[in-house]
## 1
Amino acid sequence: MKKHVLSLLVENNSGVLSRIAGLFARRGYNIDSLTVGITENTKVSRITIVTSGDEKTLEQIKKQLNKIIDVIKVLEIDPDKEVCRELVFIKVKATDGNRSDIISISKLFRANVVDVGRESLVFEITGIYSKVEAFFRMMEPYGILEFVRSGATGLQRGKNLL
Amino acid sequence: MGSSQRLLGSEIVVKCLEEQGTKHVFSFPGGVVIPLFDAFYRMDHDIQQIEPCHEQNGVHAADGYARVTGRASVAITTSGPGATNAVTGIANAYLDSVPLVVITGQVAQALLGKDSFQEIDITSVTMQITKHNFQVNDVTMLATTLREAFRIAESGRPGPVVVDIPKDIFMTEADYTPIDVETLKHNAPRRPGPQRDAVMRAAEFINAAKRPIIYAGGGVIKSNASEELISFAKKSGIPVANSLMGLGSFPRTDPLSLGLVGMHGSHECNLAVINCDTLIAIGARFSDRVTGNINEFMRDKKIIHIDIDPTEFEKNVPTNVHIQADVKEVLKIMLPLVEEKTYPDWYAQIDQWPVKGRDCDEYCPKNIIERLNKAYEDAYVVTEVGQHQMWAGQYWKFKYPTQFNTSGGLGTMGYGLGASIGIQLAKPDSDVVLIAGDGSFRMNCQELITVSRYKLPIKIFLFDNQTLGMVRQWQKLFHGKRYAQTDLDQGTTDYCKLAEASGIQSFTVENLDDLDEVLEEIKDKNEPVFVRCLISKEEGVYPMVAAGNPIDELYYE
């Protein structure tokens, strides 16, 4: 199913996150990731939701979100056209024998080494799905011990504002 | 604009309700709302507090009140159990889009989050069953929040709003400046009207139709668009089917009226809807109880959907055109665009479809309802939920919008008695008839005490078959007559004594002569009356469509 990135401006009221999460739960919509943060306006927060579903479901999601009183605006962001990234930390098994191989692959992805241990490496990589997933594929043979993904966030390019 | 005053939070609540023109509140006291009730007691105002026996029924009363007045109505409960008791009432209003402002008391802010006595996080509990809810954490925001609650409850697609107020907020002072709500409404930004091109396309579809049907729902009543619907149907010559919530939006006695559609719709109405080539859904939401099997329902037809709530479009059925706006406005704009027409072939086809049910014996639900209808033609009709509700929907000849008041979406057994109380208070000069079943009635029958206490001349007709008739009917048809838990008693419960215990005069009828006699006797009584109509538990609601089947596959007994 196609992934869709939705960017929302919401009133910074208590319970707003529950309202949105509750809507997804009740109507059976998927949440692949969800991030929340402050904005330039202290009364407003910005939420980025990555969801998957067909066009019809996506339309319903957008309309249902707009119906929540605390939601000010909903915009779909096309990750291929706009600025869209997520931050990933990934811990890979490493030995004295393969450590430099792994690091040289990571350089191709512009991943940074943020921790070096005797038996592992932690990389930081920023990107969007295809890049992150390609990096995961390259790391798999060495053994991925664990990872954490921040979930995508995004902004429109140019002078467009949400 | 008046001048600013220094008032307690509790006093601000009373003032804000006065601003809204509130005449009655349905309130039940408790620990954290004592300061609020104290303000009602001390202050000079025109608001009458009505005290139900149970908060659920207070909310149902507010719900009934709101349905017939079109204004948001108010219920007040204490925190914890008071608030949770209100939950079913709130959910009922949510599913039937009824504007309510429910004020719940809350423990003082210093005690929040500590599992304090009677503390429940009611905003979380009601999040999925309210249009919106608030907890007031700053007394300076109290008036604004209450005004916003009314605005949200009444605007667009109406619905319930909960305002949770901690006890210390009631006891803290703030500046209060009165506002004129009417001016505020007048100055509010106007909603965008219907999209012109969608209206034009809809009119084209309608003018090109060979077998059109209007499917009118509760939205027509909410938007006060009954007159516009009547003009539209009469000019275009299009027959009108109603969802349960839409009954009354189009007079049942009109030759174009087909009545109820769906699970218990008539043969001709269901066949007309399923065989039409153009379906014009107005303020209706294609509930599963209307559509039955959705694919069969949609077959070979164009669907035009008019609603104020855009989330209803494409939710249950795809449409050819949808128009998002107030139904009343759309119908006004559409009227000059549709051709004046009649459809003789289509009418003739529909006229061939009626199927006569079993010949009704002298004394059967259909005849009882028709007798009541004759005696109380103009009355507000309220029901509980179950067989009696469907009989009322099928056989009562509704004349005007808001005449039929029933729990449509949630199907809340126990709704009716509370709702009748609200309706009688809102319409003191009208007859209010409650049609109840014994299963529903026993859920909230304690409110007979409230009926009697406030001397509300409600006429209660209890269809007593000593069973949960609708469930029993499903067991009979689909579960091999295994009547699990549906038979309630063997007629040993004398509901008349219950009525008498509350000082309400009661009658038992077992045949039409009895009924006629009682109706004659109570004709001019301006006091509550309770009439127990004993009926056979074998009586069913027919026709019937099994859940999930196409609506043209109807069962008859």
## 2
Amino acid sequence: MSVTGSTRSASDDALTFDQIYRAHLGFVWRTLRSMGVPESAVEDATHEVFVVLHRRWGDWDGRAKVTTWLYGIARGVARNTRRQRGRADRKLRAVHAQPPQDSDRFSRPDRHLDRADAARLLGEFLETLDPPKREAFRLCAIEGLSAKEAGACVGEKANTMSTRLRRARLAFDTFVRELQEASA
Amino acid sequence: MTPDDLLSAYADAQGPDADAQARLMGRLAALGEPATVVPPKRARVGPWLFGAAVLAAAVALVWVVSPNRAQQVEDDRQSMAPNAATPSPVEGDATTRRPDAAPAQRTTPAVTPSLPQVPVETLDPPAPETSPAERAPTTRRAPSPRRKPAAPQTPAQVEPTDTLAAEATLLARVRGSLSRGDAAAALALLKTYDDTYETPRLAEEARALRTMARCTRDGPDEAAARAFTQRHRGSMFRAQVERACSPRSGQEKKSDGG
């Protein structure tokens, strides 16, 4: 049920930095956001992750999945960013709160609204999950990682991730069913 | 709205928008290519080594317990039996020693009765006469497969960054034209892009923009969107292409016009 397939888009057998950058840009961005990086800082943080990747490029021997590596870098960058930017971001939000702007102008506003509503609803659903299940669901259902890959990211066994994912999916099915009943 | 729609909408909303993607692509150009090239994934030799060891052990076991081997051992014993039954001439009286038999020939069979009959020349491989110091490298372990080979840094592997920056800039102009709804200008810029770069590095983005521009100009074309997504599975431009080429998008354009 993955929607991004970030780990499938580039074969790990013949990767270039450019390919990794383009294939995993969304993965890194969403991961940083899920780790609490302020919205105003997520672009710089994403770039910083890839700067680190660029600097350590020669260290990678291909044993680990690139998503695992990126996740580890993102965790460190997120920690630093939260510390550095959190206070400034709170002040900025207090001064002028602006609604998020969608720069994609290829589709209609009402369609945006539908998708925006869907994104908001799913965000609310994710908030109801406890953090371990939420991360398992995000990595597997949204980012398309296997339970083993997701487990490598967060330092858990594949079985543990499978259990968390199964419970999160049960909750998600219930959530979707209720949503459909409400809209019917 | 299906569960997949929910997940897709969330992924889009939480991911970078088109402007951020373009900006990040430009910043990637400033980074340039890393100095070293990622080696391809190492072949996992561990299972092969284990398998080879198991196979060698199995072959050795079969050789040891095989009927032929047992027969050979039995033959050896039988051939040794007369020597064992008769008193050893070496231990016996010196007067009984046969003059044509060398002492070594009398003593060695008792020590190595079960050794296979191997020609003498095969015991000593025809190795060139070298000093121990010279032979040492041949006995060293092979380099670990996980050990990274020194990646040669040839000039050919380091691509100039200005090409990528120029590509990103041109595609940003294409995106700007599309944002203004000027599909013709976007397609003209994409034609320039195709003519300029024979082996473009941002080909995926260019294809996405071309598909979106055609859908903007000619109307919805789900087949084109499907062709793009099939060619670039997992592309981060997928959602944009699908939105631009969906029939609903076309209806919205008509309602705009009406």
